[in-house]
Amino acid sequence: MKKHFEILDGLRGLAAIIVTIYHLLEGIAGTYDVNPFHHAYLAVDFFFLLSGFVIGHAYDSRWDTMTISQFLMIRLQRLHPLVVLGTVIGALTYIYDPFVGNNQQVGTVAIAVAFILGILLVPAPTLPNRWHETHSLNGPAWSLFQEYLINICYAFWGRKMKIKTLVVFVAGSAIALTITAVHYGDLQGGWSWQNIWVGPVRVTFPFFAGLLIYRLNLLVNIKFPFLLTSLLLLVVFVVPHIPRFRTNGLFDAACVILVFPLIISIGAGSHVKGKLAATCLFMGQISYPLYLLHYPFVHLYIHWVTDKKPGSTMAALVACILILSLIVGSWIILKVYDIPVRKKLAYFLKRP
User: Fold this and answer.
1) Is 1 part of any domain?
2) Which residues form the Acyltransferase domain (predicted)?
3) What is the pLDDT of residue 31?
């Protein structure tokens, strides 16, 4: 039986919750100075690193009995039900958003194209009032698109890489990541048509670095691992945006190249028990639905604030209620939709 990494589950859930809060505040604050989670966009890079480690752990030893098509179907079965649901929710909230007035007037054909391509996870022309997003109906889907691409690269090439080759490749991709971060002043790109090429750069280093951590067994066992790794992750997220353009880019690159691998090594090499382990398991279970489904509701919330202009107390109260509702809703969706659909897909995939 494969080992389960409870701490990594907990960290993934923590990052998903912080991203949700960050996106809510991002739309209201508009500037780095007001949003307390200045660098929470790096959670995506943390997710990619987690993915590389977990993919290596789950599948590296199975290639003698598994084909590439089987691997890709397993990944599709695991990830795509929520991609579909997120696109449906995104379409409904886009069409029936009561707070936008005439800002989202668009033809049926454009909506249909965005919906069909969204279901397929393919980048689509940006809809009105959606900030140049490649996935207008569900913004975070851009990172799932990159996850699919890097999984394909792993299946065709990465799984066969020798350690020395992998080390050289990871080093090269770290250089590319650093150059990109310094050029833009941060690592926020990939979600927009204006910087879509940043997506492959952002996913390549962390994914293969995670794979390398697994293959070299670079694990660290310490006391109070979840507390310390959570604090380290939070420190990264709350460090203020550095005014010096290139310095902030170097900070982002250093977090992804140095800090996040350390967190993964500790999280994978240490253990927790009892109620803390159960809490970490819960956080891991809600992390994917929360991350992938929260953004349409973020749009609604931002449009409500913009249209109704509530006081700060009311806006904060509604935000807190929304966050709690999204966490509970993610758990419900996991149980009544995601897991049952995945089981059905697994059954049909196993049929001759």
Assistant:
1) no
2) 8-334
3) 54
